[in-house]
Design a protein that fits this description.
The protein has helices at 2-27, 63-67; strands spanning 73-83, 88-97, 103-113, 120-126, 130-131, 135-146, 153-163. The protein is α+β, with helices and mostly antiparallel strands.
């Protein structure tokens, strides 16, 4: 009798394990390709220039309020290192605010590429902090998210921010 229960368990366990893995794979979005570039964003080429905002903005009245702080908010220095087992991106960067007012909740977009350019990953992160007027602030080892293990280059830009 006990032998029959063991045989059923030996057959049922792998079936349940495979079904659980399939559900996780479909629900986590892992099947989506990270190599597809985001066509709706324009990235800044050099870190000395102000970062670009998203091109498509649905409401013209809301556009000046959201892009107003962006004119003089930029990333001065940036570097990235890996965390975990090499799949987490830890970004260190300095935000410079040349505006005459404080800026809060800046959102950054980091694009990671391999040396040959074939693998790309984009991750967004909102920094829940305030950068004072006419000042700069360094954020060390900010976890941006999971990236492709073949990525070797990173480029971050400021997407949005709001007036404090």
């Amino acid at each position: 009798m006990a032998t029959k229960a063991y045989r059923i368990a030996i057959v049922a366990f792998p079936v349940v394990l495979i079904a659980g893995f399939a559900v996780w794979l479909l629900s986590s979005g892992f099947s989506r390709s990270d190599a597809e570039p985001a066509a709706h964003l324009t990235l800044a080429v050099a870190s000395d220039e102000p970062a670009a905002t998203p091109q498509a903005q649905p409401d013209a009245a809301a556009a000046p309020a959201s892009t107003e702080p962006m004119g003089r908010l930029r990333i001065l220095r940036q570097s990235f290192s890996r965390g975990g087992l090499g799949a987490k991106a830890l970004v260190t960067f300095t935000l410079r605010n040349d505006n005459a007012f404080a800026v809060k909740d800046p959102e950054i977009l980091c694009e990671f590429r391999s040396k040959d350019g074939s693998y790309a990953t984009e991750r967004r992160r909102t920094i829940n902090d305030t950068v004072g007027m006419k000042s700069r602030k360094t954020y060390p080892y900010i976890l941006v998210g999971f990236i492709n293990v073949k990525a070797s280059r990173a480029k971050c830009s400021v997407l949005t921010a709001s007036r404090a």
